[in-house]
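<instruction>
Derive structure tokens from the sequence
<data>
Labelled lines for chain and fold:
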Amino acid sequence: MKINLPSVTLMCIDCVDAQRALSVLEVCQKEINFGSVKLLTSIPIENKYVVKIKPLNSLIAYSIFMMSKCYQYIDTEFVLISQRDGFIINPSSWDDNFLKYDFIGPLFIQYPKVGSGGFSLRSKKIMEAISKTIPDWDWTQRGADKIQSGISMYEDGMISLSQFGKAFNIAPPEVACEFAQGGNNPNTFVKIVSDFTALGKT
């Protein structure tokens, strides 16, 4: 029986390889029914999941889009962001308690802190709130570069690591490890889980 997640929009934003992104969306739906499914892309491709947006031609443009405009395309209380290199491989590991958090994603590869956004679950509330913290974006690369020049991190870091994130319920590392892995050093995962167990909270 499929898992039903009516409060979650499955979303991929991709202006490079829309066909591969669509394949990821199909994989993610094999055992889960989402409230909505969307591929946001500028590429001319016909599919029921496609929502046309202006081109995002750089990582900076993608990051500014995520912070400034993404919330406008979310139909539900939460959004599961996936990219064409990440998808659901173990749907039976889903835990409804994940929906208690405003942001949950794998640990960053660089250090054992929560926030890698390429495969992440976010509340629409946190996405809309962060849009109010940065200047309005005109969809241009020049505008994106200007906004980014005043920001020390990309969008996932801004959400989970900055002062902004402290106003919301960011998942703790041990929960993030249960949610997803993002190419991290396996020793990091083992250490976090071991430390958590040692605290008697399993």
In short: The two ends are 28 Å apart (CA to CA). Strands lie at 3-13, 32-41, 50-52, 78-81, 103-104, 120-123.
